[in-house]
Amino acid sequence: MKAEDFRQDFPIFKGNDYIYFDNAATSQRPQAVIDAVADFYQKSNANPLRGLYDWSVDATERYEHARSTVAKFIGAKESCEIVFTRNTTESMNLIAYSYGLKNVGKDDEIVISVMEHHSNILPWQMVCRQTGAKLVWLEPDEEGVITEDEYKSKITDKAKIVSIGHVSNVLGVTNPVKEIAAYAHDKGAVVVVDGAQSVPHMKVDVNEIGADFLAFSGHKLMAPMGIGVLYGKKELLEAMDPFLTGGEMIEYVTRDSATWAELPHKFEAGTVNAADAVGLEAAINYIESVGFDFIKEQEHKLTRLLMDGMSELSYIKVYGSKDPNKHCGIVTFTMDGVHPHDISSVLNEDHVCVRAGHHCAQPLMQFLKVGSTARASLYFYNTEEEVKRFLEVLKGVRKVMGYGD
Length: 405
Ligand code: PMP
Hints:
Layout: H1 3-7, E1 19-20, H2 31-43, H3 54-73, E2 82-85, H4 88-103, E3 109-113, H5 122-131, E4 134-138, H6 148-154, E5 159-165, H7 177-186, E6 190-194, H8 206-209, E7 213-217, E8 228-232, H9 234-239, E9 250-253, E10 258-260, H10 274-290, H11 292-311, E11 316-318, E12 330-335, H12 340-349, E13 352-353, E14 355-357, H13 362-368, E15 373-377, H14 384-400
Parallel strand pairs: 1-13, 3-4, 3-5, 5-6, 6-7
Antiparallel strand pairs: 2-8, 7-8, 9-10, 11-12, 12-15, 14-15
The structure holds 4'-deoxy-4'-aminopyridoxal-5'-phosphate (PMP).
4'-deoxy-4'-aminopyridoxal-5'-phosphate is lined by residues 24, 87-89, 117, 119-120, 165, 169, 194, 196-197, 217, 360.
């Protein structure tokens, strides 16, 4: 199969010439995902986990089936280790509030890196504010790599939580989470992995990388918006208090107390997002039919073409590694004399979609000493023709802005 063949599965690409290079923000949805959600509403829509009648039982079964598909997809031992959330952000907050506040104290440390997305920074700032713990920052070298020396010098016996993005949404670099996790475990810390940018692009197995918690969003791997995942080791989740309270998450309630439902329901208060969980299952089935080998191969090929083309433009600066294979399809750049917002707006005139701004990673922008950047992020359904047209259009941006080259 070729990228062009897979594109046929995506209704949004039909009948227009848009080049969608903002896949790190959200991916597009294949028909199979759209159909799975519609099918849920058309055939089994009822409030899951409540009713004793056919439709509700069916809705519950489909929801729980989706959970077990997610568990297998990331190598979780049991389905109850999968909590459905809205997105990575909610998963991170759940860990911070329910695990962090309970297990971190005044003289403790929480270790993150400067390349984290805000959703893997702000929850830990909150925990530090409330407990008096210290936030410790790992910094990458010029190629965007967190070296062994760096993490070994910053993760000490004081670390209670080490929370690391698997793939940076700005530099595209894959962090050595497995090695960091092994070292952090030796020091007695719990390891949280932000998989928002890795799970859609590579096979992620929680046991292989040694994650105690893993968070990711469905919408970046072709599932609907509004469904996310928190994986947590059973013994950790069991010892945690609920994040939100209300319906569905209780065992028994009296006037002045309550006991909690079994895992994972303890963490899923209120009516759940069953249709989108079913959509996530369809997305996982779809991604597995494409295969991570193809995804990697296509992303490498396109990223090489893109970075080779950019390297010929003296006014473009690309951030992160010089090796296209180390970008996970993400190419963040600036253009001399042109603000990233102008790059994005001018590209849009030619139906090219790229992101511009701080990418919810302001500490990284400060570290790179740049206010904002433009970012082209690719996925397996993008094509060589698109990259070639993108490069042509990119040259035109400078002309539009009044430069002669
Ligand atoms: N972490 C990373 C690395 C991300 O790229 C993103 C999304 N840009 C998030 C977390 C947050 O994801 P969401 O907005 O779906 O919660």
